[in-house]
Amino acid sequence: MNSVWSKLDRKATAIAEFTIRQYRTRISTWVVLGVGLGSMLLVALFYADAMNTKIEARDNDQDSYDWDQDGYPTGQEILHGTDPYDSASYPVGVDPDPREKWIDEDDFNWDDASFASISKVGYDDDGDCRREGQLVSDSQKDYNGDSIPCNIVLIYSNYSDYLIISSDGNVDEDPDDEKYGKEALHRAFILGVGKMGIVYLLGIFLPLFLATGLIRDEMTNGTMHFMIAKPITRGEILFYRMLGYLGIVWPFLIALCLLMSLVTGFLGPSESFFRFSDLGIWFTICIAAMLVTLVYGALFSTFGILWKQGVVLAIIFAAWELGMAFVSILAGGDSAILKFSVIGWGLMIVDAGAALTWPDLAMFIEMGEWGGGNNNCQWGTDGDDCGSLIGSGPLRFFSSGHGLGVSDWMAVLIASLVLMIQAAAAWFIGQSLFKGKEMDD
Prior knowledge:
By secondary structure, this protein is mainly alpha-helical. It has three domains: 4-55 and 177-435, no CATH class; 65-101, no CATH class; 109-171, no CATH class. Helix content is 55%, strand content 4%. It has 13 helices and three strands; from the N terminus they run αααβββαααααααααα. It has a three-stranded antiparallel sheet, covered by helices on one side. The longest helix is centred in the middle third of the chain and has 34 residues, at 177-210. The radius of gyration is 29 Å and the shape is elongated. Residues 112-118 and 376-383 have low confidence and may be disordered.
């Protein structure tokens, strides 16, 4: 049956296949894709090295030090109720613990808090807060005043988007630096590469070289005469050429995200052989990159139709988008100016995906910045034993809220819809310009 739809299918298939064949026969296409793949693999090597580099354990609370030189570490003396600063006061009849026992002895513990109001987390792993059997009142164990001894209170304000940590003494004060650092660096790598590497750089790099000349090159070479001689509108030609462009770019992005998810899934810190939980964030990175390349492709091809040197306009626009990418990372998703960009909406998808994949992300970052609560070093200690934990800084830098004031799932849907509307608007403008263009310019 020779229906309207079957004719449309044949026209779409013919032009899209012709476009894909053009891309496949051009060395420049493989150079562009090769550079993109090579750069991601190079970054993955640095990630692999970081995951295989041991992070030195730090005594964040300095309770492994023997301040009074009586042979007993501070943590052991606090646990047994003796004075760690008096050499005449020490646990009688108890062998001294090795110093290493009181390093990383009180790791972070928390539940999957909803952050709706107040969440109580933390546990006194090493017992130096509880000190059962000693004459220590509950008020002395309840410095945060929540009537629960030896815990941590997290106060999360939805209005200010700020997390406050209030801890009872000696609770989660000496976390496992290796465990926290590897997890923080792993998440920071995924967000950094996903946002700046795949969604922005590849998202704008691929359309810049592959889509700007989508119509312009055919007009310049004269081959467009053969297309418009057929019973097909110019708007359809632009649309089907875009399909051919996406037929090259989208499979590449899907394969690249799948490859990177395998690298981070197998090499990332995990109690199992693979981190299946991270597939959600890689899925949203892939969706964001695909939609961003769709918008940039439609926009840059329109620049090519508008002006023979359309690549100049594309480069200027890419510079604007780079600025918006840094605004998104530095200021977060709350900046209103991001609504007037393409990359801003793309990064909102990634930020929402991160919140869905890692519900504890805000708390995880804050706990790392808190560093066990020991931000004031005691005299004579190593300065590296104080302050925030390794990895918390990069993770805070690359993570931000989506700023839409809706649920994370709704943010993904809204940002995706906005990007599709932007792509449709760019195509409409492009096909309108294309209709008024002469083939001999």
